[in-house]
Amino acid sequence: MEYVSTRDKSCKVSAAFAIANGIAPDGGLYCPMSFPALTEQDWQTLAKMDYKGRSAQILAKYLTDFSAEELADYAARAYADDKFGGRDTAPVVPLSAGRHMLELWHGPTCAFKDMALQMLPHLLTASLRKTGETRTACILVATSGDTGKAALDGFHDVKGTKIMVYYPVDGVSPMQKLQMVTQEGKNVEVIAIRGNFDDAQSAVKRIFTDQKTRAELDRDGMMLSSANSINWGRLAPQIAYYVSAYCDMVKAGAIKMGDKINICVPTGNFGNILAAYIAKQMGLPVNKLICASNRNNVLTDFFQKGGSYDKNRAFYTTTSPSMDILISSNLERLLFFASDYNDKLTSELMDKLAQNGSYQIPQDVFEKIERDFDAGCCDDGQAAQTIRALWENERYLCDTHTAVAVHVYEDYRARTGDATPAVIASTASPFKFCRPVIEALGGMLVRDDVTQLAALSELTGMPAPAPLAVLADKIPRFDRVVDKADILSTVSLLKDL
Ligand SMILES: *Cc1c(COP(=O)(O)O)cnc(C)c1O
Question: In three state form, how does the secondary structure of 141-159 look?
């Protein structure tokens, strides 16, 4: 299968090339030119497989320059039982009223980013090999909190790679920060940026397109790559869990094969929900994809106001920091797909976004998008109420991001009366965001405890996940803080890793 840039489809590359390079030279995102269909035979095979098998099977449809054996081997290692607490990789937990929580946070860093970032190092190192690349791949990551740690965990001490993570200094939870600054490994660097996530993401994109920086790195035997969801190798592994959830729901008798489901996803960079959209294009029976935002509701407005995107608005820090984003990168891919791969249009819209911070998509493209998507948003108070209600009514403990999705889903259902069984993506362990979860439950915070793990355990009677519990004993290694204007200068640090 060939991949093209959203901004110029005349330049065709292999999956390995797209993954190795992360972003196209024109600043566009690599996309497949078709969606391979899931056949009757595929569904029968998938139904019988475990998560590792399902993942390899879905990836094989897109990564046609990888062998089935390679992909099976990567999936076995990425989703090894010891990395996922010895339980299902992506379990579906039924709640009342046809709601099914798809728990994506049983991996080593306790957020859904592990689902892709445990796989990406395997895909990336193989892609370097397949494309004959001999330079060291330097992975630059902008993070709103969870991607940073998941990428560090995936890439630390992986041969042929170095990784540098940028996070907004005041924009991540105490736990997220502790996870990142205590990261072990020789090839890692973690830097705080004075600014928000969009500043960090724009800065990283700037490094990627700075020819002088690229040339200097090249001279030193290094190349740039990305572990953000702009990389197709990040997105592709995320398709499998929607298919897997469907198989599990059929198995559990919640639906019959062929029945439609709704999928609601707490959204920031639009990667996770785009993976669900792709699964739908492949034949997953989906009625509506429901895009859930926090108070940073630029996407809600986009879907509710006829495809008008406008990031010129206040930026809020919320209790769901991984969704505090005003430039949702992967929307670019949706526009490309929904406009029948119109690279000229996509590139014009992205120019407008860069220049004015806003754009309006054509009516016919919006009508196509509107058929697949619904959207809503939720403020911190509503998220807190949702956490409390789920705990009190169903003894189900969820994190702040997941609560946004649950609230938006309930709104959608009340507004439309659509009772199609729903999958709600549960994207992080509640123990990653102890403070707002404890406050939502009306519990007491413990003074001078950064993580508040013990307090949440005590309050709920649930144990903290092991990877979070061990952090208290680790020594912070990184304390560098830089202005966003100085980000280019940090590239020189890569040399010494
Ligand atoms: C990254 C993240 C999101 C948003 O996912 P996108 O793919 O960026 O839309 C939601 N919840 C959590 C916990 C996350 O880490």
Answer: EECCCHHHHHHHHHHCCCC
**Atom in ligand 1 nearest the alpha carbon of residue 401:** 11
Reported as a single tens digit per residue, the pLDDT across 71-106 is 999 999 999 999 998 789 999 999 999 999 999 999
Between CA 133 and CA 168 the distance in angstroms is 32
> Is residue 195 lining ligand 1, measured as CB closer than 6 Å?
no
Assign residue 110 a region: left if phi > 0, alpha if psi is -120 to 50, beta otherwise?
Answer: left
Q: Which of 141, 332, 401 to mutate to test the pocket of ligand 1 (most atoms within 8 A of CB)?
A: 401
Q: Is 277 in the pocket of ligand 1 (CB under 6 A)?
A: no
Is pLDDT at 302 greater than 90 in this prediction? yes
Say if ligand 1 is within 6 A of residue 267 CB. yes
Please identify which residue in the block is written with the tokens 């892709």.
116
Ligand 1: centre distance to CA 73 (Å): 27
Q: What average pLDDT does the chain have?
A: 95
Helix (H) or strand (E) holding 289: strand 286-293
Q: For ligand 1, say whether the CB of 427 is within 6 Å of any of its atoms.
A: yes
What is d(CA 449, CA 457) in angstroms, rounded to the nearest whole number? 13
C-alpha 320 – ligand 1 centre gap (Å): 9
pLDDT average, residue stretch 285-309: 98
Nearest CA to ligand 1 atom 2: 322
Distance CA 473, CA 481 (A): 23
What's the whole-model pTM score?
A: 0.96
Mean pLDDT, to the nearest integer, of 394-406? 98
Q: How many CB atoms lie within 10 A of CB 117?
A: 29
Number of Cα atoms under 13 Å in the Cβ half of residue 477: 14
The answer to whether residues 17 and 64 touch, using CB atoms and an 8 Å cutoff, is no
The pick from 274, 323, 326, 399 for probing ligand 1's pocket by mutation, whose C-beta has the most ligand atoms within 8 angstroms, reads: 323
Secondary structure element (H or E) that encloses residue 369, with its range: helix 363-372
Q: Which residues are catalytic?
A: 113
The predicted-structure confidence for 416-439, as pLDDT tens digits, reads as follows 999 999 999 999 999 999 999 999
- Tokens read off for 9: 């489809």
Closest CA to 196 of 40, 365, 383, 326: 326
Ligand 1 pocket residue status of 266, Cβ below 6 Å? yes
